[in-house]
Amino acid sequence: MMLYRFFMSILAWGAILGNVGNAQPSPLDSFTNTKRATSPSEATAFAIIYGYPMIQYAASLDSVITSVGTNAIFSEKNTATADEAAIVRPNVDTLYSKIAVDLSSYEVVITIPKIDDRFYVFPFYDLWSNNFANLGSLNNTAPGKYLLRHTPGRSGFESLPKDTGYLGAVNFPTPYGLVLPRILLKNNSTDLDIVHAIQDQIKVEKGRQTIPLAPPLSYELLGSGTLEPLALTPPAALDTNSVKALLTVVARVAPYNPPANARDIIPVSSVLRVAGISNGRYSPSTFVNYTEANQIANTALTSTEKLIQLFNNEWFDYPPEASGNFHSSYTIRSIIAYTGYLQLVQDEALYPEYIGSGIHGLSLAGNESYTLTFSGKPPVKGFWSLTAYNSSSYLIPNPLNRYSLGDRSSLTYDDSQLVYGTGRNGSFTILIQPADVAPPVNWTNNWLPAPAGGGNFTVNLRFYGPTGPLYAGGAYAYPVVKKQAVIVPQ
Ligand SMILES: *[C@@H]1O[C@H](CO)[C@@H](O)[C@H](O)[C@H]1NC(C)=O
Ligand SMILES: *[C@@H]1O[C@H](CO)[C@@H](O)[C@H](O)[C@H]1NC(C)=O
Ligand SMILES: *[C@@H]1O[C@H](CO)[C@@H](O)[C@H](O)[C@H]1NC(C)=O
Ligand SMILES: *[C@@H]1O[C@H](CO)[C@@H](O)[C@H](O)[C@H]1NC(C)=O
Ligand SMILES: *[C@@H]1O[C@H](CO)[C@@H](O)[C@H](O)[C@H]1NC(C)=O
Ligand SMILES: *[C@@H]1O[C@H](CO)[C@@H](O)[C@H](O)[C@H]1NC(C)=O
Ligand SMILES: *[C@@H]1O[C@H](CO)[C@@H](O)[C@H](O)[C@H]1NC(C)=O
Ligand SMILES: *[C@@H]1O[C@H](CO)[C@@H](O)[C@H](O)[C@H]1NC(C)=O
Ligand SMILES: *[C@@H]1O[C@H](CO)[C@@H](O)[C@H](O)[C@H]1NC(C)=O
């Protein structure tokens, strides 16, 4: 474990020199703040929650690494449908590309092409799913070359002098990470070709060699497909073998990929050690009781409900300091990894959910529907949409193959005039009704199908490029939600 020691000494120096960025207290996490002295079961519960993003990292990148390798781009050619269950809560507004970033012994150069007249974002994530930097249309990012490099203890975007040949550097706090370029798709059949052409112009190349600080990122390192999708919604019943597989992978990556918050480096590694994670291996103590660890994890997951922030009209999400870039909010980080992996920071996007009768979403009988009455067009610089998901966070099959409505849809006002395409800004209503109950013709454009026969489901608003009125406490009146009988032709 020579490399490990070398790495820890760099971190120690960073701490001493005071240049370890982002050092905030941990106000939001019950584990790191109030419970440092832990039993093996408590420590195991923490390790599951802390390490959970590795499950989604592997699920998202295993196929990318086996098909194109690391530091290479893989572009999705179509948006998600209800037939796939690859990504949870996929958005159907943008086309994604994926880059498994490995900066363990190279810098990497990414070329951002010129992208006109549409929203796009290149979000950068560390290994633990923290969205620590973004380039894109909201930033008026100039097309050209950007340098990706591993800078222990430091993260974020940095401008570089012209003579370097780069427009800037994206400093990764961990050697492994992820870039997930997203390009908005206009609702128009020829647009797919235009976006494919843009994707083809994104280039990723190896740059300068650096002192190796970690082993190369590989499919084997990520567990070679052994990680099971652990459902984290309490009361989660976590399978012990799946937990062990997860913690084995966490043990392998943790030494080189410390928490971004410098204050957490020591407490996190000491709790992980109590869980049996040290020197790259997972060797649990014989005193671990996995049932008890599961219960402790459930209590922590449930306790985050107290931390949600309410917008108006009963829409909610987590507060800005625990959205996209989670800092020390490890429990929220794990929940979002499970329900909405690769969230963006709130500067880039808001993802309000409707609280309904509780945090777990909406529910309809087969003869019921919801109406969502919008006060007016949401004020966004990017785009907005409303997407419905089944209770496992996947898209809902329906005869229209429609998963989402928003600013690129043919929504109509009550007088059947189009909402978008004119300057008029008034109130309009979206109808959420089971997929097997077709509404009258004048509602068709505004119909977002719910599960056939009714059932539990959730909806997400997405505000990309939100403006002031949309943030918590802002002036925009969120949609008013009402449940009533299904609306059917008379
Ligand atoms: C990009 O814009 C966002 C939102 O305005 C801002 O928070 C972020 O710092 C900007 N990033 C860069 C690299 O300038
Ligand atoms: C579809 O998009 C293309 C490119 O953005 C545009 O040229 C064309 O006019 C659009 N077609 C329709 C029917 O809106
Ligand atoms: C493990 O924990 C569970 C739940 O707290 C408890 O019911 C069980 O008796 C414990 N098992 C052992 C062997 O201590
Ligand atoms: C549309 O009107 C609503 C309600 O008055 C307002 O909150 C919103 O900002 C307006 N949207 C735009 C895009 O101007
Ligand atoms: C949700 O959708 C996925 C993908 O279609 C499916 O596998 C799963 O069974 C559905 N879950 C529920 C609760 O209907
Ligand atoms: C695109 O427009 C069609 C026709 O109005 C509509 O059925 C569909 O839902 C729209 N797609 C999205 C993603 O809004
Ligand atoms: C459809 O028509 C009914 C009856 O005239 C009306 O109450 C309703 O607002 C209309 N809905 C839409 C979306 O146009
Ligand atoms: C829907 O959720 C409620 C409350 O969470 C639960 O009691 C009920 O069993 C769920 N229904 C289905 C069909 O899963
Ligand atoms: C839906 O059906 C149930 C029984 O099948 C009935 O009790 C209920 O009143 C109906 N709800 C509406 C809104 O029609």
UniProtKB/TrEMBL annotation:
Residue intervals of the DUF1254 domain: 72-205
Keyword annotations of the record: Signal
Keyword Signal attributed: yes
Keyword Signal: yes
Signal peptide residue numbers: 1-23
Superkingdom as given in the UniProt entry: Eukaryota
Domain DUF1214: residue ranges: 360-467
PANTHER family: BLL3101 PROTEIN (PTHR36509)
Entry protein name: DUF1254 domain-containing protein
Source organism of this protein record: Trichoderma gamsii
Record lineage: Eukaryota, Fungi, Dikarya, Ascomycota, Pezizomycotina
